[in-house]
Amino acid sequence: MSQIRKLLLTLLICGLAASALAAPAALASHSQATYFEGSQDLLNAKTRPHALAQMRALGVKALRVELNWYDVAPSPGSASKPAFEATNPGLYAWGEYDKLITEAQQLKWKVLLTVTSPVPRWATSNKKAPYVTKPDPKDFQEFMTAVGLHFATQVSLYSIWNEPNHPAFLLPQWNTNGTPASPRIYRALYQAGYAGLQAAGQAKPNLLLGETAPTGYTKVNYKREKSRALLHDVAPLAFLQGALCLNAQYKKSGSCTPLTAIGYAHHAYTTAAGPLYKPPEKDNVTIGVLSRLSRALDLAAGAHAVTSSLPIYLTEFGVQSKPNRFLGVSVAQQAEFDAIAEKIAWSNARVAAFSQYLLVDDPLGGKPGSSVNGGTIGFQTGLEYLGGKLKPLYFGWPVPLTVSKSGHGFSLWGLVRPTTGATKVTVLVQRKGSGKYKTLKTLSTDSLGYWTLHSSTQGAHWRVRWVSPAHVKYEGPAIGAR
Q1: Residue 310 placed within a domain
Q2: Which residues make Cβ contacts (< 8 Å) with residue 122, sequence separation at least 6?
Q3: 23 with 154, same domain?
Q4: What is the number of domains present in the chain?
Q5: What element of type H or E holds 57?
């Protein structure tokens, strides 16, 4: 802890905000932006200064912020829409969202703003909590105009809805005949959001489509499950098909016009089996099967439903650690799995962005699916425990490292995240039977901080060490070969 505190103090004293230049998102191999979502730690005035200081030290350069419509709207709990000019940003209570985004701009961090539910009660079709049922597209278009006018150049990238294929965020997910209902609801909201940003003066909005959760169903049996069937997630590829008016063979099933977007956003969470896990359900997309999503987008482009070669933005990701008893792995595995997942994304030419969800763990919640019944799930994907104790991932995230067996040797991959250009990094190895680490090699990164190395040296564990220009030492946790 003392090392991290020293690190933070050094960064703050030296005023290294200028080093936080946002990495460009690009549709190219070996380059990707990395977004960090701090959730409530950043939207709380008491915890935000410390969280931002930690993120600066960790090398964060871009934020994802979820803007809940309900939080800022006039009279959000009223069943009747108040009389107000809904496109006027001055009539909304932007509160901590304003403060956070202003601070991000001062740090020169890019901001991805995901506008999502819950929505004002008056904008729902049933006027019932949790206020996610059939939001009114016209009301949403007016709200998005206000959002676009208010944040203007402070936000570099927008996205419509968080996990619209999940019943905790959008209802209904299903029709009683067993077919998905949420894709068409989402399509209308996306079109409304796009039009709202255009009305705010953005001729070609930087807008992402999707933000889909990784798993779900392609059909449900209402007769057998009754109302429980309507609370299942829709599988992400089935959702994509429905939102683009395509059938299961990616052929047009209606006269819908193409949707315009600069990328497709997806949350490629995986299970405790790790990032290489391949779900058997063909319409589910975890980090280990990203090719399913790129192929689906290519087929959709072939049907003229979206533009060709649409980039993939992995806008929410994290590895659950214990004490989550449903999806958690050991904290040592969390650091390894997170780095492997990032390398998978980096190696995919289609991926324009990766992400980290949570700095600090959520309180423990129930099993997956609890949220649709009014409970909480709780994510233990943070770099530190809820009580403040740091996990190995806290030290590994600034300098992620993967080691894989390759022939008679090992292939190593890593990143020096806090750097702003090419730098020198030292790779350490612990030989089998030895309790000490020795320098394997000191090598140069590329201009974005990435590096690779092939080594024939047999080892039990590896780690990396980097010293910043301010003489702050970063040293990652021990990593084994996989």
Answers
A1: yes
A2: 75, 76, 78, 79, 80, 81, 82, 139
A3: yes
A4: 2
A5: helix 48-58
Is the domain of 101 the same as that of 212? yes
Contact 8, 50 (CB under 8 A): no
| Six-digit token string for 400 | 């992620």
pTM for this structure?
Answer: 0.93
Confidence of residue 376 (pLDDT cuts 50, 70, 90): confident
- Residue 480 counted as domain residue: no
CA neighbor of 408 nearest in space, from 375, 368, 454: 454
Which segments of 119-245 does DSSP mark as H helices, in order?
A: 137-151, 182-199, 222-225, 236-243
Q: Strand 438-444 relative to strand 450-455: parallel, antiparallel, unpaired?
A: unpaired
Single-letter amino acid, residue 401? L
> So what's the pLDDT on residue 353?
98
Q: How far is CA 328 from the centre of its chain?
A: 18
* Domain carrying residue 464: 404-475
Q: Tell me how crowded residue 56 is: count the other CB atoms within 10 A of its CB.
A: 21
Helix (H) or strand (E) holding 303: none
Is the pLDDT score of 468 beyond 70?
yes
Q: Are residues 368 and 408 in the same domain?
A: no
**Could you tell me the pLDDT band of residue 371, with boundaries at 50, 70 and 90?**
confident
